Amino acid sequence: MPIFEFKCKKCGQVTEFLEKAGSTGEHKCKKCGSTETEKIFSSFAARTGRLSSGSSGCSTGSCSLS
Q: Which domain does 18 fall in, by range?
């Protein structure tokens, strides 16, 4: 199961949740308890270049995201 990041609309806390892709479950902020969260791009995906549409296939983790 993939990990998704959600940002709380009330306090700004970013929390990771392990869930099935396409899940529509409600997520509760671990800091303030609010259920008003929005899915954001994962910082892990950004660091590994997974947001790029023309993926270069970098597997070393040291590739640039320019």
A: 3-47
Number of structural domains the chain divides into: 1
Write down the pTM of the prediction: 0.57
Here the CATH number for the domain that contains residue 23 is: 2.20.28
| Residue among 4, 8, 17, 64 nearest 37 (CA) | 8
Confidence of residue 35 (pLDDT cuts 50, 70, 90): very high
> Other CB atoms closer than 10 Å to residue 4's CB: what's the count?
19
CB 21 within 8 A of CB 2: yes
